[in-house]
Design a protein that fits this description.
The protein is of the alpha+beta class. It has one domain: Lipoprotein like domain (Double Stranded RNA Binding Domain). The chain has four helices and four strands. The chain is flat, with a radius of gyration of 21 Å. The N and C termini lie far apart (50 Å).
Length: 163
């Protein structure tokens, strides 16, 4: 005897509609309202450049001069040793990243959403100097992609962004 019943699958859309579920990319959804209408703050470091680049790829680069929304972001990273041998050689490093954001209305300047996202990535330091630097650069790029994904996900969850 199976507990699975196909009729319950038919009731799932009704339950989602009753709780106010709205697709992000539907006309009038928050994804459609943000796409191409967000001006991201200018970067001032390599890390913030990578973060802004990823945010603009996901949200779309604003083409018009009178943007509907402004997104202020700031990012900071801290590198820590994660694996140390008995001879005090570092084999693995971790980069902790923290990005704070504030989505503001372009007309009034009122903050519509704000918050902070954190995550970490690791990379090997056991190779040559060149490979360690390449691994660090790759790890920072991966971290900025992760932080940008988290920021965009939180912005899409903001209610009432549609015009």
């Amino acid at each position: 005897m199976s507990l699975f019943n196909r009729r319950t699958l038919l009731l799932i859309p009704l339950a989602l509609a009753a709780c106010g579920f709205e697709p992000v990319y539907a006309p009038g959804g928050s994804g459609a309202a943000l796409n191409g209408n967000v001006a991201v703050s200018a970067p001032n470091t390599v890390d913030s450049f990578l973060l802004v680049q990823n945010l603009e790829q996901q949200l779309g680069r604003s083409a018009n001069s009178g943007q509907d929304y402004m997104l202020d972001v700031s990012v900071s990273t801290v590198t820590q040793a994660a694996a140390i041998t008995q001879t005090n050689e570092i084999n693995r490093l971790i980069i902790d990243g923290r990005a704070s954001y504030a989505l503001k209305s372009g007309e009034s300047g009122q903050v519509l959403a704000s918050g902070e996202v954190t995550d970490f990535v690791g990379y090997s330091a056991a190779g040559s100097t060149v490979s360690t630097l390449a691994d660090e650069r790759d790890a920072k790029q991966r971290l900025m992609v992760i932080l940008a994904d988290q920021i965009v996900n939180r912005l899409y969850a903001v209610p009432d962004l549609s015009k």
